[in-house]
Amino acid sequence: MKTLKDAFTHTLQDIYYAENQLVKAIPKTAKAVGSAALKKALSEHAKETKMQIEILDKVFASIGQKPSGEKCDAIEGLIKETESIIEEASGTALDAAVLAACQAIEHYEIARYGSLREWAKTLKLSEAHDLIGQILDQEKAANSKLTNLAVEEINA
After folding, report:
1. Quick one: pLDDT band at residue 156, thresholds 50, 70, 90?
2. pTM of the entire predicted model
3. Residue percentage of the chain with pLDDT more than 90
4. Minimal CA–CA distance to 75: which of 104, 117, 37?
5. What is the pLDDT of residues 122-151, one digit of tens each?
6. How far apart are CA 156 and CA 134, in angstroms?
7. pLDDT tens digits along 46-59
8. Which of 17, 22, 31, 155 would suit a FRET pair with 54, their CA atoms being 20 to 30 Å apart?
9. What is the Cα–Cα distance from 100 to 150, expressed in whole angstroms?
10. C-beta atoms surrounding 45 within 10 Å
11. Domains of the chain: total
12. What is the CATH number of the domain that holds 43?
């Protein structure tokens, strides 16, 4: 990468890969937890993630590129960490630790989408900026839901 446009494209491919991996991982995670509210939140986010991939397809189209992913080591590690928690924890600890791992994933996504949105603005990619902003808002809302769930139910 030598230019901001290169960084934008690379990061877009990175998050595209990440979202596609999460579509596979979230249902497995939802099955593993005990809390009905957490299961529901994860299931809803899985649906939202599929819609986000469709939005990312539009972002790629807006910059004249075919949607493609590039392996994202960060998401691989976060998914692996979540899988380890599922194997090692049980009961209340399982739900609390999985929820925390899910928030780590949300924070990663918020950081990526925040950078992408601002880079799109700088690069004058207004359609990409608006589309990425939609996803960023969804990720922030998902994180807020998880925080509320932790405070109101899981951590109690």
Report:
1. confident
2. 0.95
3. 97
4. 104
5. 999 999 999 999 999 999 999 999 999 999
6. 32
7. 999 999 999 999 99
8. 31
9. 8
10. 24
11. 1
12. 1.20.1260.10
Q: Alpha helix locations (H) across 33-152?
A: 36-62, 73-88, 91-122, 126-149
CA pair distance 97, 65, nearest whole angstrom: 38
Structure tokens belonging to residue 88? 């090692």
Tokens of 81: 């960490």
Phi, psi of 41 (to 5 degrees): -60, -40
The residue type of 15 is I
Contact 31, 85 (CB under 8 A): no
Q: Tell me which amino acid residue 135 is.
A: I
On the CB side of 16, CA atoms within 13 Å amount to 19
84: domain range? 4-154
